Amino acid sequence: MLKTIAAIATPVGTGAISLIRISGPNALKIAQEAQAKGEIPSNRSVGLRKIRDVQGRVVDEGVLSVFKGPKSYTGEDVVEFTGHGGVVVTRRVLERFLELGAEPAEPGEFTQRAFMNGKLDLTQAEAVMDLISAQTSLALRSANEQLEGRLGKVSEEIREALLGATAHLEAYIDFPEEDIDPAVGEALCKTLREQERKINELLATADQGKILREGVRTVIYGKPNVGKSSLLNRLLGYQRAIVSSREGTTRDTIEEVVNLRGIPLRLIDTAGVRDSEDEIEQEGIAMTRGQVSRADLILELRDLSEPYEDSTLELPEGVKCLEILNKSDLVDSSWEGRGGLRISCETREGFPEMEGAIAQLLELDEDHWGDHSVAVNSRHQACLMKSREALERALNSLQEGEEPELTALDLREALTAVGGIAGVVDTEEILGEIFGRFCIGK
After folding, report:
1. Looking at the structure, do residues 12 and 136 belong to the same domain, yes or no?
2. Which residues neighbour 157 within 8 Å (Cβ) at sequence distance 6 or greater?
3. How many Å apart are CA 260 and CA 352, to the nearest integer?
4. Which of 16, 88, 282, 313 is least enclosed by beta carbons within 10 angstroms?
5. Structural domain harbouring 58
6. Per-residue pLDDT tens for 161-170?
7. Is residue 346 domain-resident?
C-alpha cells in the first residue's frame, strides 16, 4: 500500500502562520484522529480545528483544509493544516501526524506524486521549482508559461509527429510488398525536417533559460578607484561595498544579484587591476582575472577624470562587454570625441541609458523576449540534442536509400529522447534527479 506522507510546507523559522501538508490513502484518517473531537471538514472546504496530543491536550488551533483525490494537487487525498508559525508548535503538529502513521516526505515527493498521478507532466513539475526560485519578472513569466504546459505541449506535438512517422516506416518494414512510393517517402522526409526545425527553435532558448535560472555572471572590471564599488552600490540601491578614494580598497570579490529590467545580473565587484607589489592586492588582482575568464558579461569601467589611455582588457572569446565611462561630471579634455557610454555614479546621470544598453546587449529585455516565453533547461537541452542527432541520421539514411530498419532505429531513439522532456518514459534516475532538488513539503 502506498505510504501516507507529511511535511512542513512553509520556510524554516518563526512566522505568522505555518502550513503542514499530508497526502496519501490515510490522510483523512490521520487528520480525524489528530483532532480527536468532531468531524473533519467536508471535501474542498475548511474548518477551524484543534490538533491534540495523545493525552488529548491541545497542541495548536488552526484551519484544516480537505481535498479528496483525484481532484487535489497530488491526485491523492490531501489535508493541509494552517496553524501558528512558531518553530516548536509547527514541529509538534508534524510530530503528531507522524505518530498517527504518516511518514516524513522526501524532497519534492508531493510534486513527484502529482506527476506520477498524471496531474502534471515533467516540464510542469520542473516549472514549480522555477516558479519558487524566480528572481525577476521574466523568470516568473517563463516559469508560469511552462507550468501551464506550453513546453510540454510543443514537445508532445513533436513526439506525436515522430510517432506517426515511426509507425508508418515500421508498417512498411512489416509489409514490404506495400512499396512506399517516392511521394510518400518525400512526405516522410518533410515531416522529419519540420520536427528538426521545431527542435532547433527550442534549443535556441537554452541560453535564455540558463540566464533566467542562474543569472548573468557580470564582472565589473577596471583600474583602481574608477568607481567599481560605487557602481555596484548604485545598481543594488544600498551600500554593499566599501567606497574609498584610497586605491586598492577592494581586495576580494563581492557578489550580489540585481534585477535589471527583468534580467537577473549576478554582479561581481573585483579588485582594481594595476601593477602592485602588495602580496594581498596581487592575490585580489589574480582573482579578478579569473572572474573575467568565467564571465558572461563584462562591464569595463573607465575614469573620465583621468587622461585617456588605451584599454588593457583582454576579452575572452564569446564574452559580451560594455564600456562604461564614469565621472561624466569631471571629464578630462583628452576624452573629447571618444565614444563610450557616459555615466556618473555620483549623480546617477546616464544610468537609464546604461541599463537599456545592457538589456539590448543581452537581448533579454521585454522587447526582445517576445513570444519566446518558455526557455528550455539543461535537461531539456540534452534530450533535444540527442533527438536532433538521431533525426539527422534518420534523414541521411532515408535520402541515401539505406535499409529502413536502420532508419526506424534512429527514429525510435529520437522519439524516446523527445518523450524524456515531458516524462513519457520510465526512467527512475531522471525522476530522482529532478525531484531531489525540491524543498521538502513541495
Report:
1. no
2. 198
3. 10
4. 16
5. 5-105
6. 888 888 877 7
7. yes
DSSP annotation string for 56-125: S-EEEEEEEEEE-TTSSSSSS-EEEEEEEE-HHHHHHHHHHHHHTT-EEPPTTHHHHHHHHTTSS-HHHH
Instruction: Examine the domain organization and report whether 250 and 363 are in the same domain.
Output: yes
The total number of structural domains in the chain stands at 3
- Give the pLDDT confidence score for residue 66 in this predicted structure: 96
Whether 118 maps to a domain, the answer reads no
For residue 246, count other CB atoms closer than 10 A to its CB: 8
pLDDT at 293 over 90: no
Q: Which of 313, 345, 369 is the last residue of a domain?
A: 369
How is residue 272 written as a grid cell? 582594481
Nearest to 438 by CA among 115, 22, 107: 107
- Residue that has been written with the C-alpha cell 491526485 in this structure: 75
- In this structure, what C-alpha cell is assigned to residue 397? 539514411
* Percent composition of the chain: helix, strand, coil (DSSP 3-state, to 5): 45, 15, 35
Say if residue 266 is in the same domain as residue 360. Answer: yes
Residue 192, domain CATH:
1.20.120.430
Other CB atoms within 10 Å distance of the CB of residue 193: 11
Selected residue with higher pLDDT from 73 and 205 = 73
Query: Does pLDDT of 150 surpass 60?
Result: yes
CATH of the domain at 234: 3.40.50.300
Kind and range of the H or E element at 251? none
Burial of 187 (0-12, 13-18, 19+ CB in 10 A): middle
| In a shared domain, residues 227 and 286 | yes
Q: Measuring CA to CA, which residue among 96, 95, 80, 74 is closest to residue 2?
A: 74
* Helices 182-203 and 150-174, packing angle to 10 deg: 150
Whether the per-residue pLDDT at 241 is higher than 70: the answer is no
Look at the alpha carbons of 278, 281, 283, 288 in this order and tell me if their dihedral is positive or negative: negative
